[in-house]
Each structure stands twice: as structure tokens, then as C-alpha cells.
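Continuing the batch. This is chain 6 of the set; chains 1 through 5 are on the previous pages. Same settings as before, nothing changed between runs. Recording input and output for traceability.
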Amino acid sequence: PAGELHSVSIFAHARRGDALAALIARDAVDGLCAGCCNLVSLLNPQWIVAAGGVFREESLIETIEDYVRKYAFSSSLMDFKGVRLSALDPAHAGLLGAGAVGWRSLE
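Output for chain 6:
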């Protein structure tokens, strides 16, 4: 609907040279990279499974993997295999995550 702003349109505008969209996209990518790097350094997962509309940006997973491999603690990278895109519908991934958090709070 009109007036809604989505990551897909922000990245598209950034690719077309919109300076504000490029700034917003870069900040989003930087935050995702830092968050995933911290996740790997703290929890030592084998995989990060990513979901949501922002991951429709094709280069994002490779960018995150490169960043994590460069900046995460080397001891945390021994078992790290990479970042994968979830098979869940990106439109529903956030809703499922929010529902899971709500469900756990009932326990």
C-alpha cells in the first residue's frame, strides 16, 4: 500500500543512486553484520539462518559471511559454516518469530 516503506524498495532506491536510501541501506547492513558477528562470537553456532524481507537483497548473505569471517573471534569460527536463507516465506518469518517468543512467555 501507498506510504509503506520496505527494505526491498530502500535497497532498490540505493542501487539507483538515492543518497538517503544508500545511507539507510548501509546502516542496516552494518547493523546486521555486527549483530551476526556478535552472535557467532558469543554462541559459536554452525549456521546462522536468516529470514525476512531484507534478505531478498541478493548480496547480503555473502556480505554478512565475509564480515563475520573477518571480525568474529577466530576460536568461534572453527565450527562456523555460514549464513543460510530460511525456507520460510519472508513475509511470515517475523510473525512466526514473534509468535514463538509469545508462546515461550506463556510457559
